[in-house]
Each structure stands twice: as C-alpha cells, then as structure tokens.
Design a protein that fits this description.
Blueprint: H1 2-17, E1 29-30, E2 41-42, E3 45-46, E4 48-55, E5 58-64, E6 71-75, E7 78-81, E8 96-99, E9 104-112, E10 115-124, E11 127-131, E12 135-137, E13 142-145, E14 154-160, E15 163-168, E16 174-177
Antiparallel strand pairs: 1-11, 2-3, 4-5, 5-6, 6-7, 8-9, 9-10, 10-11, 10-12, 13-14, 14-15, 15-16
C-alpha cells in the first residue's frame, strides 16, 4: 500500500510540473556529472551501455544498470545522472532520442505509471546540462522535433486528457498547443507525431 501511495504521489507531482505555462520561470540547469572513471557504477551495479547516438560530431551514450532503474547520460566524458529513474521510470534501448542543431538536445524517457516521463539534456557551447524539471505525457508520447521552424528542437508532449499536444522550447517556455481533438489518432502523423507550425495556437 505504501509503494502504491508513493507512486501515485510521484505521478501527481510530475504531471503538475508541466500542467501550466510558467514561461520557463524557475527553470534551473543541473550541474554536469563527474568525468567517467574506470568501474563507474549505476546504483549498486556496473553501468552498461543501453544505446548510443551521434550528436555534434561526437557520440552520446545512455547507460544503466541491468534493471534500467539507475541511469547515466554520457557525453564527451561527462556523466549526468538520470533523475527520471529516481521517480520510478525504467530505461531501455528506446529511451534516448537526440537532435543535432544550433543548440542540440537529447531526451531521455521511460514509462511511469500509465504514461511516460522525460528528462531533457541540452548542449550549450559544448557543455551538456540537464534541465531541472521533467516532462510527463499521460498518453505515453514525448518527442523532440522542430515544430516552430527555429534552428533548435522543441519538446512535444502529447496529452490524453484532453487530447492535444503541447510544444516547449529548450528553455522550458511554451511555444504553443494544438487544438483539442476527440482522438489521439487525429494528431498529425500519429503515432509518430510530426507537428507543424500551422498546428499550433495559444495554449488555453
């Protein structure tokens, strides 16, 4: 019963973080982790590489223990702890997506309850940092995409209740929302959601 209450509390807390448009106010950047050393551990066991992606003429890696419950994001010899695993998310080979741009970014995601939670990593001037607040989708869809046409990716968060997609800039400010739909399948490209600037309007 206690475990259930803790999980429910975590879900409510995460969902509330992105339920309102705060214009990016209060966002802080976490400090990058320590350089990778021999025998680096993820939790109580050794790290293993779940997946890797090329970004900015280099490679970033997502590391985790055997259960995917303790993770690390590695870029350029720097490790950043995955805070979403502390909320209860589990990482796997499909948990990392990255976009190379003028400001590159990666999204680390994992299932949490009936939805999906994500942690944003941003590369500014060659230094990767983690954005403090997580993103949560009760529809289980979090993606990086270029929706507004700017030379930087945005975070797309699909909601199931009500059915719509919210788009956030890398600083956490809201770019816009789609109109409300009756079904998730009405979102452009569903289930591989590919929004365009014309899909967006002010979030209500």
């Amino acid at each position: 019963m206690l475990a259930v209450l803790v999980t429910v509390a975590a879900l409510i807390g995460v969902a509330s973080l992105r339920s309102r448009d705060d214009g990016g106010a209060g966002l802080q950047m976490a400090s990058p982790g320590a350089p990778l050393t021999s025998g680096e551990e993820c939790g109580s066991g050794p790290c293993r590489t779940l997946t890797s992606q090329p970004v900015d003429a280099g490679t970033v890696d997502l590391l985790a223990d055997d259960q995917g419950t303790n993770g690390r994001f590695r870029a350029g010899g720097v490790l950043i702890e995955t805070t979403i695993t502390q909320l209860g998310a589990r990482l796997d080979a499909g948990s990392l997506s990255c976009v190379t741009a003028s400001v590159s970014a990666c999204l680390v995601t994992g299932p949490l309850g009936s939805g999906r939670v994500g942690q944003l990593m941003v590369d500014r001037a060659g230094t990767w940092r983690s954005v403090d607040k997580p993103y949560f989708s009760d529809a289980g869809v979090l993606t990086l995409g270029n929706v507004s046409g700017s030379d930087a990716p945005e975070v797309v968060v699909v909601q199931n209740s009500p059915v719509l997609a919210r788009v956030y800039a890398l600083d956490g400010s809201t770019v816009g929302c789609t109109r409300r739909y009756t079904y998730l399948s009405q979102l452009r490209g569903w289930p591989d959601v590919r929004l365009q600037a014309a899909d967006l309007r002010a979030c209500s």
